[in-house]
Write a structure and sequence with these properties.
144 residues; 5 helices; alpha+beta; four-stranded antiparallel β-sheet; globular
Length: 144
């Protein structure tokens, strides 16, 4: 069972995709993006292609795999979202994070500082940028 996500979130995503920045996307691609974001917000637990296909009533796992090979400008999408939702009093925050990863062939593997462990550990480093809304005490992801 998928928990229901508010329809206002769906309307917000659709309004952003109707912006002139996303005119290059056809209707099926826009519908796919809305579907993916809807499912990511709805599914509890791990999100992968199998889960997306399992919980989607109209799209199969292979469709999700194929569509994710096509590039999407998430930076522009996130900027549009931030401009619609966040107040004018905002700052940009930088958050380096450590991700544990086993194996030897993943690009970027090395020893990185883990603040939780208080030591350098084997894995990946991800650097996230977020826009912090000072008035509402919230932050929205911008780019990683």
């Amino acid at each position: 069972m998928i928990p229901k996500v508010s329809n206002s979130v769906k309307r917000l995503v659709i309004s952003i995709l109707e912006n002139k920045v996303f005119d290059v996307l056809n209707k099926s691609r826009k519908d796919f993006i809305v579907s993916v974001l809807w499912h990511i917000l709805s599914i509890k637990g791990r999100i992968n292609f199998l889960q997306l296909g399992r919980f989607s009533s109209s799209l199969c796992e292979q469709t999700f795999r194929n569509q994710f090979e096509i590039e999407f400008d998430f930076l522009s999408f996130n900027k549009q979202l931030i401009n619609q939702v966040v107040s004018d009093e905002r700052i940009i925050a930088f958050d380096p994070s450590y991700i544990p990863k086993a194996g030897k062939s993943t690009y970027g593997l090395g020893r990185y500082w883990s603040g939780v462990a208080g030591a350098a550990k084997w894995g990946l480093d991800i650097c996230g940028f977020a826009v912090v809304d000072i008035v509402n005490n919230t932050a929205l992801h911008l780019k990683a």
